[in-house]
Amino acid sequence: MFKGSITALVTPFKNGAVDEAAVAALAERQIEAGSHGLVPCGTTGENATLTFEEHMRVVEIVVETARGRVPVIAGTGSNNTAVAIQNQIRAKELGADAGLIAAPYYNKPNAEGLFQHYKAINDAVDLPIVVYNVPGRTVIDMQADTVARIATLEHVVGIKDATGDVARVTQHRRLIGTDFVQLSGDDPTALGYNATGGVGAISVTSNVAPALCAQFQAATLAGDWNTAREINDRLLPLHHALFTSASPGPTKYAMSLLGVMNTELRLPLTEPNEASKAAVREAMVIAGLLDAA
Question: 212-234 pLDDT, tens per residue?
Answer without folding.
Answer: 999 999 999 999 999 999 999 99
